[in-house]
Design brief:
Order of helices and strands of chain A: EEHEEEHHHEEH
Distance between the termini of chain B: 78 Å
Strand content of chain B: 5-15%
Distance between the termini of chain A: 32 Å
Mean pLDDT of chain B: 80
CATH architecture of chain A: 2-Layer Sandwich
Mean pLDDT of chain A: 88
Number of strands of chain A: 7
Structural class of chain A: alpha+beta
Helix content of chain B: 55-70%
CATH class of one domain in chain B: Mainly Beta
Radius of gyration of chain A: 15 Å
Number of domains of chain A: 1
Oligomer: heterodimer
Largest interface: A-B, 57 and 71 residues
Helix content of chain A: 40-55%
Shape of chain A: globular
Structural class of chain B: alpha+beta
Strand order of the largest sheet of chain A: 2-1-5-4-3
Shape of chain B: globular
Largest sheet of chain A: 5 strands, antiparallel
Strand content of chain A: 15-25%
CATH topology of one domain in chain B: Immunoglobulin-like
CATH topology of chain A: Beta-Lactamase
CATH architecture of one domain in chain B: Sandwich
């Protein structure tokens, strides 16, 4: 995974995580381009994969939020697509029916969950149970 | 961590802002507030955390935040977990990499990695991974390795340590000294915790790409784990995802195995793959389950292609994929097409795939551009000589309706396929002209440049191309690129059709002229050149041409005006020879890799993760897999690769000239570049006169290496032809023949070897052996003729093979007395003496000179007689040459270096004059080349 972006329909980025090195300027440009690429796609008849520069974006839309992973073209798209789903399930379980506002107000927790699931651009943990238990443990710390 | 009220209020405030300016104002107000708070020094931990959080939020919204760095470091150093957590978050988001404060963060990291609380260790590992500066890679790698390898330690620490290493490895491969610990992490792939196995497998996969075979052992672990997951039904309770056991781990393991040769694990692997494929036959109901299962399935097919592409398993997979590409799920269609392209890139027979050609062509019309792109890739990969016409025709048909983003790629691929599989010239020209007309706006200049190159390089094409060019000009619509090609072609070869009805010079000029008003500036420039060339080609219309040029002398565009003025001036100068010289026909283009291919490949290279295959036909992938050994071979032959790009014709001429041992006089005036090539080529030849293997020819397109084994009177010569260009070379033929028909030297291709391949991909290598028998002493070396076609342009390389009579010599040791007796005897009979006084190729002071001379004598097959000569540096040597029909011939040699004059006298006496001469010639060439 090169980067993870969670954006709403207006293109506001709610979560960004960069696993490759980009300058501030590049990041800004990438965010805009990803939004343009993904939001314009038809949800019903089109795949969850789209070519993006020399890479590929695997994305899924949940309510008004687009979860986008930018990956290498030879990565396994379906496994990452399901990783997105797992991430959303975890967020959901953690916040109890997550919505965009939860991501806004609890951004620091979202980053903590992200660090438990993905690290260095790779999937780290794939068990919902393990992640949630861990988050509870960390939350209990002062 | 309890929510921070101040932060929540601030975020809510910002959300209420109606406009960007409102938000800006609110942020600035808060920044000012925070600045004063930070100055007060009496901040408690909670408040510090709160303010830093606000700063993070602002920066996430895209506002510039450059305060709070010091406070972030303070938080990192706090003893409270929640404050540390925010501190590290701020460090990774706010503090720039080069900042002095980053150093402070790194030293906290070092301390926290050894904290007794594993949660803090994990926090530090995450932060180290997210920040991943060079300093961390250099100073903390060892500690992280320790954490991963420690016998105790929680799975959380191990997972994070493995991925932290991965990030550092990717970013600073030279700083982490991976070879020191790479092998030791492999056993952790057997960790019972799925998360740890997953993380370590990711790390090992990256290592396998860098270290290659050293990581081989990992495949045992991977196969074992897969077997337990797939066949033995390992219980991974927490990691079952919608009924699929640990799908992510399965995918990772299957991918890792694609980087190794399967070896003896093949049967077991095939068993696992079969189970995965069988299990997916029944379609799952739920979307999540289907995705997880198919993620594993597609990866299994990819591995299957790697393990055993031509087994029945893959034919079954082809059927399965055939079903997928008509699936109702767009994702599945997408992946079905992509995986099929992988299969097409590797499978021997394309038949199982061709069955679906119709469906694939349909997919070019899919609603999803991603799917359309995959269909294009697949068609490109599955194209071969038999299907080329159909596929190219389909692609051309779709060109008109394809989206702009896809059109360029489509055009490139059509151009490449057409060139690669063209069997008729007319077809090539027709397709390309249609292509530029259809897609001209969407492709770079490479395509029309390439067409011109190919036409210039193939005489057979030119006549037809002219006809089509003229037609194109007269067509109601003529695309600018088509105009450029047509103008160029007529300018060069218009005379070929000048006698045909309706194609007279005047007609050609008119057709061209009619296009000018509407043409773009660059097209007009090309057209002007064509007109200028007409002045030379067709004296009968020179005046008309001049009038046209004259009109453009007043053009507003500087480029056009300059061209017109210059051409006009050239054409009006009173000189018989000037015009024909300047406007001579262009020489064929230097045969390089078609720019199209490089352009296409450049799209695929940008990935850290090496691909195991590329989109394209089987040959291109085959050559990829053989690339490594080929590289080793060429370095074994002692190859140094230099890059000179001469034209194809001059390369040929130079090679013949340079390698001929008889033409030692200075070659006629040449460019410095050519001189360098001559010198180099001569050097290669000379070196092979006393060394058994090395490079024989090193050109811009191909390299020829040679390996010789002499068992006088027989010898076996191995030749290696390497393709250095970036395109495939084909129609390869390698022939060797003796210089005369006397039968003194018999040279023929060895019978016990594979046939020379017909074509060679870039970096590919072909090998051919020749059996040589020396019947009698022969005067001249045999000739090697290599011919090949690169991108439609045939090239013939004629080289002299460094196989001379002197090569069939074995050393013999005789006593000093015997030597001088024979020496005298031969001198008196004067059967064969050759003497040469050569300029010593060293400085007088060079201490290695004598040793070099000895090595040369030894390498040529002489035995050195010690102590024969009073002067220690003189060399006295004996060899005996063996022939099949004429018996054996003794050969004595004396070498007397005279350092004071920097000359060396060489005297050879042999029982055969031709042999003596051959030895003398060889030595002088060796001296010359040094």
């Amino acid at each position: 995974i090169r980067f993870i972006l969670v954006q709403n329909r207006q293109g506001k980025t709610r979560l960004e995580k960069w696993y490759s090195n980009y300058t501030e300027h590049e990041r800004r440009r990438l965010k805009a381009e990803v939004h343009r690429t993904v939001a314009s796609r038809d949800q019903k008849h089109q795949s969850n994969f789209v070519e993006f520069q020399n890479h590929r974006i695997v994305y899924r839309r949940y309510a008004g939020l687009f979860f986008c992973f930018c990956i290498d073209t030879n990565d396994n798209e379906l496994s990452l697509l399901e990783a997105i789903h797992l991430f959303v399930e975890v967020l959901d379980a953690y916040h109890g029916n997550v919505c965009e506002l939860d991501l806004v107000f609890n951004f620091y927790w979202v980053y903590a969950i992200l660090d438990e699931m993905f690290l260095a651009g790779e999937i780290q943990e794939t068990s919902k149970g393990v992640i949630l238990a861990r988050m509870d443990q960390l939350g209990a710390l002062e | 961590m309890a929510p921070m009220k101040g932060l929540t209020v601030f975020i809510a405030d910002l959300r209420k802002c109606r406009s960007q300016e409102d938000e800006e104002r609110r942020v600035n107000k808060e920044l000012a507030n925070i600045r004063t708070k930070f100055k007060e020094n009496s901040l408690n931990g909670y408040n510090r955390k709160k303010y830093v959080c606000k700063l993070i939020y602002m920066s996430l919204l895209g506002h510039e935040v450059n305060i709070g760095h010091k406070e972030a470091v303070d938080l990192v150093n706090s003893t409270k977990f929640s404050e540390k957590q925010i501190g590290y978050l701020a460090a990774s988001l706010l503090i720039p990499e080069g900042s002095e404060l980053m150093r402070a963060v790194v030293s906290s990291l070092r301390r926290d990695l050894y904290d007794t609380n594993e949660c803090i260790v994990c926090l530090a590992l995450c932060a180290a991974t997210n920040v991943a500066t060079r300093e961390i890679a250099e100073s903390l790698t060892e500690d992280v390795v320790m954490l991963l390898l420690a016998p105790s330690g929680s799975p959380f620490v191990k997972k994070k340590a493995a991925l932290c290493l991965l990030r550092l490895l990717r970013r600073f491969p030279e700083s982490v000294k991976a070879q020191q610990w790479a092998a030791r992490v492999i056993p952790y792939m057997g960790h019972r915790d799925v998360g740890v196995t997953l993380a370590v497998t990711s790390l090992v996969t990256a290592l396998a790409q860098q270290q290659g075979d050293e990581m081989r052992k990992a495949s045992t672990f991977a196969v074992r784990r897969l077997r337990s997951l797939v066949l033995d039904g390992e219980r991974v309770a927490d990691h079952v995802y919608y009924g699929v056991p640990a799908p992510w781990l399965q995918v990772k393991l299957l991918r890792l195995l694609q980087y190794f040769e399967p070896g003896e694990q093949r049967p077991e692997l095939l068993g696992i793959l079969r189970r995965i494929i069988d299990e997916s036959q029944e379609a799952p109901r739920e979307l999540q389950q289907m995705n997880a299962q198919y993620a594993v399935l597609f990866e299994a097919i990819n591995l299957g292609i790697h393990v055993d592409v031509d087994q029945g398993l893959m034919h079954e997979s082809a059927l399965l994929l055939g079903r997928f590409i008509t699936s109702r799920e767009t994702n599945i269609r997408f992946l079905g097409l992509e995986t099929m392209a992988h299969l097409a890139a590797c499978i021997d027979s394309l038949e199982p795939i061709k069955r679906y050609q119709g469906v694939i062509v349909q997919s070019l019309r899919d609603r999803d551009v991603s799917v359309r792109r995959r269909a294009l890739d697949l068609l490109y990969s599955m194209c071969d000589v038999t299907s080329a016409k159909a596929i190219v025709a389909e692609l051309l048909r779709h060109m008109a309706i394809a989206d702009a983003t896809l059109r360029e790629e489509m055009a490139l691929k059509v151009a490449i396929l057409t060139e690669k599989f063209a069997t008729e010239y007319a077809w090539y020209v027709d397709v390309m002209m249609r292509l530029v007309s259809l897609a001209g706006d969407h492709m770079g200049d490479e395509v029309w440049h390439r067409i011109v190159q190919v036409i210039l390089g193939n005489e057979e094409l030119q006549l037809y191309a002219c006809r089509i060019a003229l037609q194109t000009l007269r067509a109601p619509v003529c695309h600018e690129s088509a105009l450029k090609v047509s103008a160029y072609v007529l300018g060069e070869f218009g005379h070929l059709i000048a006698n045909a009805p309706g194609c007279a010079p005047l007609d050609q000029l008119k057709a061209l002229q009619a296009r000018l008003p509407a043409a773009s500036l660059p097209a007009r420039a090309v057209a002007l050149t064509a007109v200028a060339k007409f002045t030379n080609l067709f004296p009968e219309i020179k005046n008309l041409c001049l009038r046209l040029l004259d009109r453009f002398r007043g053009a507003l565009d500087a480029e056009l005006q300059q061209r017109a003025c210059e051409y006009y001036a050239l054409a009006t100068v009173e000189s018989e020879s000037l015009l024909p010289t300047v406007f001579e026909e262009m020489p064929p283009y230097p045969e390089r890799q078609s720019a199209l291919m490089s352009r296409l490949l450049s799209r695929e290279t940008d990935t850290e993760d090496q691909r195991t295959w590329v989109v394209g036909g089987r040959d291109i992938n085959r050559s990829r897999s053989t690339r490594k050994p080929a590289e080793e071979d060429s370095s074994a032959v002692g190859g140094k690769q230099e890059t000179i790009q001469p034209t194809a014709t001059s390369a040929t001429a130079v090679a013949v000239e340079a390698a001929a041992p008889t033409s030692l006089d200075e070659p006629p005036a040449q460019t410095p570049e050519e001189q360098e090539r001559v010198a180099k080529s001569r050097k290669h030849y000379a070196r092979l006169l006393w060394e058994s293997d090395g490079i024989l020819y090193d050109g811009a397109e191909v390299q020829v290496g040679m390996m010789a084994q002499y068992k006088p009177p027989a010898a076996r010569i191995g030749l290696f032809l390497g393709n250095k260009s970036a395109a495939a070379i084909c129609d390869i033929s390698i022939q060797a023949e003796s210089s005369d028909k006397s039968g003194d030297l018999v040279i023929q291709q060895a019978t016990d070897q594979d046939a020379v391949p017909d074509s060679l991909m870039p970096l590919g290598q072909a090998r051919v052996f020749f059996d040589v028998r020396c019947h009698r002493v022969f005067p001249t070396a045999p000739t090697l003729r290599i011919s090949y076609t690169l991108a439609g342009a045939p090239t013939v390389l004629e080289l002299q093979l460094p196989v001379t009579a002197a090569h069939f010599m074995d050393p013999v040791t005789i006593s000093v007395a015997d030597f001088f007796a024979r020496w005298k005897q031969l001198g008196e009979s004067s059967i064969g003496e050759s003497q040469a006084v050569l300029k010593t190729p060293f400085l007088a002071s060079d201490a290695d000179a004598v040793q070099w001379l000895r090595n040369v004598a030894g390498g040529m097959g002489f035995a050195l007689i010690q102590g024969a000569d009073a002067v220690p540096d003189n060399i006295v040597a004996v060899g005996i040459a063996t022939t099949e029909a004429a018996g054996r011939f003794g050969c004595l040699m004396r070498v007397e270096p005279k350092p004071s004059h920097s000359l060396t006298r060489i005297t050879i006496r042999a029982t055969n004059p031709t042999l003596a001469k051959a030895v003398a010639t060889n030595i002088s060439m060796i001296f010359d080349a040094r």
